[in-house]
Design a protein that fits this description.
two-stranded antiparallel ribbon, alpha/beta, globular, 31% helix, seven-stranded mixed sheet
């Protein structure tokens, strides 16, 4: 893809994200996403994080297949989840479900350190290669069952999950710092909600449903290590 074509497509993508946020302002609780989030989305070359046959569609506001019956989320959902997470420059972020690394690359622009877990080894290896090529040196990735989080690096300031469990996994709640935020889709396949969960100082969790979504299921089997 030519650089000038990519630049035009990326601008279009950002315009569609902005228009979608405004249209859904009553649902998501704000009419525009944080400028840092939009800047990060503008920097990361999305076409480098999709299979080559789908690169012409990389900047369309649609999910795209990445293999193994998994998808890369549509840009608006990536923007929404990133914005809800409210990432600070010094944050340590746990991501469950690396895919090919696009969400991690966006988060890498915003946080101090990203710890990302992918259950499918081939996807994880491809993600490592793509993230390395883009200079995302603050992303650490492991192949494991993300249901169990990454306890060695806990607690985390923020947790983002890109696959949907029926209920929020207890290990992820345990690994979130007091005062931290988690963005996660949860529920049965046809009734998933994107949830913003916050951990209070006393350890209790508050939950807010944002909107209906459709993600692949988060696996619960195995120890993850």
């Amino acid at each position: 893809m030519r650089a000038e074509d990519v630049e035009a497509l990326r601008k279009d993508m950002l315009a569609v994200i902005a228009a979608s946020a405004f249209a859904l302002r009553d649902t998501i609780g704000k009419s525009a996403f944080d400028e840092r989030v939009m800047t990060a989305l503008g920097k990361v070359p999305r076409h480098e994080f999709v299979p080559i046959e789908f690169q012409p569609y990389a900047y369309a506001n649609i999910p795209l297949p990445i293999g193994f019956e998994k998808t890369i989320s549509q840009p608006f959902i990536v923007a929404l989840m990133t914005d809800l997470l409210d990432v600070k420059a010094d944050d340590s972020v746990l991501e469950i479900g690396t895919g090919l690394g696009y969400q991690a690359a966006v988060l890498a622009q915003l946080a101090r350190k990203i710890y990302s877990v992918e259950i499918i080894e081939e996807l994880g290896q491809k993600a490592k290669q793509r993230l390395r090529q883009q200079g995302c040196s603050n992303v650490e990735l492991k192949i494991a069952n993300g249901y169990h989080g990454w306890p060695e690096h806990a607690p985390f300031d923020k947790v983002i999950v890109t696959a949907a469990p029926d209920l929020i996994p207890p290990p992820l709640i345990h690994q979130l710092k007091a005062g931290g935020k988690m963005v996660i889709p949860a529920g049965l396949p046809n009734t998933q909600q994107l949830i913003l969960a916050e951990k209070l100082a006393n350890g209790r969790m508050t939950m807010k449903e944002i909107l209906t979504v459709r993600f692949s299921q988060l696996e619960e089997t195995g120890s993850g290590f």
